[in-house]
Amino acid sequence: MASSVTANYLPRGGAVFTTMPDILFIPELVFGGLVWILVASTHVTPDNPQGWVMFVSVFCFIMTFLWLIIFACGGHKNSGGWATADFVYHFLAALFYLSASVPLALVTLGYSKDRSNLKYYQIDIAAVVFSYTATLFYFIHCILSAIRWKSF
After folding, report:
1. What does the UniProt keyword field contain (predicted)?
2. CA quadruple 99, 100, 105, 108: dihedral positive or negative?
3. What is the pLDDT along the chain (152 residues), one digit of tens a residue?
């Protein structure tokens, strides 16, 4: 796997799937999609924290997919501005996912006291694990994008 973390270029085409940090687009999409699916399949109570989790997971899934398409098609024209935008987006996505993961974990802890709905409790546990995993991938992508941005 080639490393573009310290290179002075942004990958395009198939190189997006073989370079760091851009290969992290795939697990970000997978885990973000799983959070979206799992939270959507539960009984949404309370509305406010679960609604925020849904917004974050859908927003980040769509934006990451668009970001991947832009990079894969070479729409970024290999400029330093795109490296900055990549860092800023992944920083905000990591922050958003962290701000959604904490309330989701608190709601799930509330379900642990009521064992009458074991199915939703187990689904929420999986959603919490995938949400924190997505947060970790976005955070790692943010750090590696910052290193690439600084070397541009």
Report:
1. Membrane, Transmembrane, Transmembrane helix
2. positive
3. 455 555 556 777 777 777 888 888 899 999 999 999 998 888 766 666 788 899 999 999 999 999 988 888 877 776 668 888 889 999 999 999 999 999 999 988 887 777 777 888 888 899 999 999 999 999 999 999 899 888 87
What pTM does this model have? 0.86
25 within domain boundaries: yes
From 18, 17, 21, 27, select the one nearest 69 (Cα to Cα).
17
* Residue 90 DSSP one-character state: H
User: What residues make up the domain containing 121?
Assistant: 16-151
Residue 26 in tokens: 């795939």
Does the residue 2 lie in any domain? no
In-domain check, residue 5: no
Per-position b or e across 35-50, b if 16+ CB within 10 A of its CB: bbebbeebebeeeebb
